[in-house]
Amino acid sequence: MQKVKLPISVDSVRAANNRLELDASLDKALLSRLRESTNSIHSDIDVYFSFEVDQQRLRIFHGKASVAVELTCQRCNEPMIYQCEAEFTYCPVLNEEQENNLPDVYEPIYYDENGEVNLHQIVEDELLLTLPQIAMHAIEDCQYSDYESSFGEIEEEQQRPNPFDALAQLKLK
Ligand SMILES: [Zn+2]
């Protein structure tokens, strides 16, 4: 089945009342911030949203987004594939009072004057949050570690100066 294109925004109240489910794809060309934070985005983004009314009659939605991106390994400087998997639950709110009354389990998100939440922005924000602070290959896939282990990993480990030693000495002075 062909996936629908993710709408830019939806009326979150109506979507919740209708128990709207979206199994959609989002054009990678639309995610300029994710593009700038990575070497490249491998494919369009797989997205799933489900809107519902919870037991406290709060209108909420759950979502998932996944896509592979290319990053640069900070250890060996070679490209690496990173699989972004985001999962989130939001409760759309109108104002600060509603936000403050939310149960802790829900992340508030403001809807606009038309009652709409921006799904594209949510997906991009959530994917950006999954990116590692420092991108690195798994040790067995890293070029640098291949080089290291060919010289005997344990020896190298012991010879390498520990940056914390230098720090400790600085503190002693
Ligand atoms: Zn590497």
Automatic annotation (TrEMBL):
The keyword Metal-binding does not apply. Pfam families: YceD. The keyword Cell membrane does not apply. InterPro entries: YceD, YceD_bac. Keywords: Ribosome biogenesis. Belongs to the DUF177 domain family. Plays a role in synthesis, processing and/or stability of 23S rRNA. This is Large ribosomal RNA subunit accumulation protein YceD. It comes from Psychromonas aquatilis.
